[in-house]
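Incident log entry.

Two folding requests arrived from the same account within the same minute. Monitoring flagged them as a possible duplicate submission, but the sequences differ. Recording both here for audit purposes.

Request one:
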Amino acid sequence: MKHTLLALALLSLVACGSQTPVGQDQHALNKWADDRLWAVLEAQEHRDTKALCLMLQDTSGTVREAAALAMASVQDSTARPCLMAALRDDRPTVRLAAARALAHIPDSASLAAVEAAIMATEDTTIANMMNEAAFIGSLAQPRDAMWYVSYLESSQPAIRQRSVYRMARLQTEELTTEFAGILHALRVEMDPMVTRSLMSALRTDNNPATHELLIDSAGRSKNATIRIAALRSLGADKPWGQIGDSIFWSALRDPDPGVSHTALDILQKRQGLDAERRLETVREGVAPYIELALSGLALKHGDDSTRKAERGWLNGMAGQPLDPYAQAELLPAQANDPDKDMRPVLTEKFMANNPAVVRLAAVELAVAAVREDMKRARYASREAQYAMLGDVIRAAIGTHDAGLIAFACEQLAEEDSSAIRIMLHDSLVEEARVHLHLIRDLETLQLLEQAVAKRDGLPPPEHKAPPFNHPIDRGRLLQLKQGERYRITTTKGEIIIATNVNETPGTSLVFDSLVTAGYYNGKAFHRVVPNFVIQGGCPRGDGYGGMPWTLRTEIGSTGFTAGSVGVASAGRDTESCQFFITHVPTPHLDGRYTKFAEVVIGMDVVQRIVVGDRMITVARVE
């Protein structure tokens, strides 16, 4: 309520004829020295839709534009009427901001209003950006493959990109009738992002012409992201007799780690590999984690003498002083041994006081081993099969470790209610809740509640953001300049990013505070997904860690492109200390995640990062 009154008071001052920002410092480093814009930010932070709607009527176009953009972060459907009114604003940038906000809370009436506003906008650049916003809103509705294909010839690259990205995620049966058109589009497309998504859409096309094009791209394209996309499409549910496995083995020695990692993932999922023969041709010169994985493949597929040799080599590695990420990579290689029951070792690993990433790897492998046993125990009763799995699930939850509990709940989510009832008892749930922090372990608590709801036949609980708990320190914020730069010195080289303080002030300030405190120094990149992101900053090192506070989701005016820096979250308004950097444009993140910075130097370093690489230091560039 007090923020609404503050907004009304400021609006009254403006209405009385004030044309200069109250308290404006002409030498301000960012826009938040303007008291009227600070009121907009306060309303945004407190999700005060009524105050923002009033600000859309301010006499200052700058305030109206800021209020409209703030609605993109709030994403409250009750704001549609005032945003639709803002589409008739005499200032084009206000209309654009309103269109962008409506794109995240679309309905048929608001989309029609945006279309009308586009027709009334003479500025071609603004009209094109509004058209993209309208298209984003239209993607909220289910579409068939033909609808997406119809946009592949759009003159606006952003619309082409978004269309094919969504199309590539359709089910095979929905795409089959469009394969010929998609292949034609792939042959003529020049945009790398569209090319990658078109390749993904053809992942189940068994046309030899498609295979030929993908194989050629995987082996010869100068663009590593296209080589990755081609390999993924070739490795997805295709008859390998038509393709062979040579392209994947040779890709293990690709200089780009994303390409080699993708090839390794595909080979590890195949059965009947001639790992002994191939091992000798590719082992020298590959990255250490690939060498470990290759040894595991030879252990799995080799003969007795090969297994003996690889077992000895892996045991020797286990005796070395490996860092936690190398230990986590060693475990799955050892777990491939068909002559040894690794479950007792794995159980001991995740029950003991090992680094979080090692414990998580161990419990993942223990669950995988039990699931394989369940397949073989086809004559056992269903209760007996799930009793085996339940032993591991309950042991993981019983550790009271937030990461292991979260993983266990993710496994439970794959089962039906009757299976969950066998494995998840109320006493275990209550014990877990006692040991989880309401905010720091929010993601784990959400997963636990989802598992309980499914067990009890209830609908999934709605995501509820935690209460506002981390106010912005305006004094410290005003010390940051728009485009503030930070140097991330990693084990692979330097990355320099620039933060967007004007559009994501809360996130930019928290990042600066953590950097100033030295928080990120020594933290690892715990997650790397080729053609997607690198992610780091987790206090646990396994991705399940956070702070005892959360940030508000802040949505700016631009989407995620290659080199965008965003904040990991467990849902709206749950952001904390983990951040990610995108390898390629990722439009599916737009409107859902906070993008607070961009890489300005060092994208080549971003592409070389692998799991376990560390941030040696992170510091502001003075």
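Request two (distinct sequence, not a duplicate):
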Amino acid sequence: MNLVLVANTIRGLAMDGVQKANSGHPGMPMGTADFAAVLFLKHLKYCAANPAWADRDRFILSPGHGCMLLYSLLHLAGYDLKLDELKLFRQWGSRTPGHPEHGITPGVETSTGPLGQGCGNSVGMALAEAMLAERFNLPGETIVDHYTYGICSDGDLMEGISHEAFSLAGHLGLNKLIFFYDSNRITIEGATDLAYSDDVRKRFEGYHWNVLEVDGHDIAALDQVLTQARTETQRPTLIIGRTTIGKGSPHMAGTSESHGAPLGAEEVKATKKALGLPADQDFFVPDEVRAIFAARARELQAVEAQWQAAFQQYRAKHPDKAAAWDAARNLALPADLEKSLPVFDPAKPIATRNASHTVIQKLAAAVPYLVGGSADLAPSTRTIMDGQGDIKPHSFLGRNFHFGIREHAMGAILNGIALHGGFRGYGATFYVFSDYFRPSIRLACIMKLPVIYVLTHDSFYVGEDGPTHEPVEHTMALRIMPNMTVIRPADPTETGAAWIAALKNTEGPTAILLTRQNLPVLDRTQFPKANKLEQGAYVLWQSAPGRPQIILIATGSEVPLALDAAREVAKDGVKIRVVSMPSWELFEKQTDKIKKSVLPPYCRCRLAIEAGVTMGWEKYVGAKGRAFGLNHYGASAPYKVLAKEYGFTTENIARIVREMVAEK
């Protein structure tokens, strides 16, 4: 098997794709082509004819800028990616975008490009594999047995998220996680020693990883080191590969000039000549290389077919296990899930974070594939599934994650779990710390991953902890993200409905925003059922039938406040409506008829009330309405003092309402 020719063919395709687009990064694909050739042709388990095969190995290119490496491999391996698509690299409508995008290109496991994110995704995938293996493998019947391979770069290891994610991977002992570190010592600005002199071996040994080193261009040594990595049973493995960026280029190899720009037509020709490729042919693939990949494809198709047959036998012998497998893979929910929700006593106010804890216990029993955890804040976010066990080193049967103080990694790991399949994951922290993993949230939105975020301590009502812990701008910051669903429930019963809505949403992430302070439980014998939350907004109360003179729109903890103020003003004979609007995004999915029934166009006198910045509320209050919120940071004081100082009182809201009615 001529793996040198395969590697050089990959280099040629990568150079040509970047050169034709006049944009891209040729150096990294050229430097890692040897490793990639060995991995795909001698170690990686995949099936191009069935890219979704559950027991395939996962391959993650964390430095997504080097995606011509991945596209070349996928094309050669027989995925549905024609050579013409490589010629359309970075062009409108192509399946070869400038960074890998999950859902666009067959065989791309995750969207990468923001450095370090692929590292976190990989940890999530390896974790999901380990959890599935403990749940579904039986003595003599192994249906889950695959590896997660990745390539990381100098840039990935400089980013803090790689530290968070790889530290947790080492702690847990994810031995089926194998990364190749493309140590070419070059970044865009020049040599890495401008800003980077870490001892990577010591760093990863400190993480409890198995660390191996290799000449990244020695085919035989690469094969040997990958074989050795697979024998490790206790630790993840980092293979430090000493490589040359732009390998093969006579004048640009080893330089930053080959990192992020085309080599130039003449240098491409010179490089092809040096590599033994036809200098006058672009996107050249030798017949021998096609034959090598075709033989590998046949071999792997037989492996996949053997697995499918074994799984059918497993299904017949263990129908309960198979049913659980199917439900988890399809994220199927029980038809009567809502009936499992707890009933809250209207006589006992409760914080929605605590209500959420009660809800989670019911959902844990009804949805066995629900897993989740917190960034070291479970006692405060109230997100532990009682009695369901913990994920611990070399022990993956539990359902509670302990991410440690690693919010950024938590977000990326949850994305990896969602991408892998088999679980529905949630992650929790104080709302203000969503800033720490916003990049991971953004990628969940881009990939439309059904991750759930439980974000507590949702406003200035955090109180004594002060402005550093009091989210003000965060709700709007999440709402502006495409494909994000934000839900801020008004009371404990709406909190249960919020969880149901989140579980039903499989087209993107959902954030559930919860209070630290107690809220009254609305008596649903007097108010609409809480499942109206799935409408996004609904009429909670109106003082009298007919057309309202003014509409109060509120979310979360401000709904009871709006209700109290409305009742006060109604004593004046004002016809007033209160709308609970837990989710803008869910409301926007409704028909015009439903929207107009909640917010009739004829009533232009509207007041929105929310404990956060008011920018954005114009959409619902219009030119004649107002929004009352907090357009500055909070302060350190008891929350009741802050509420009074900031005007979040029944008296002040009633005053504003009376003023608006009088102006009308």
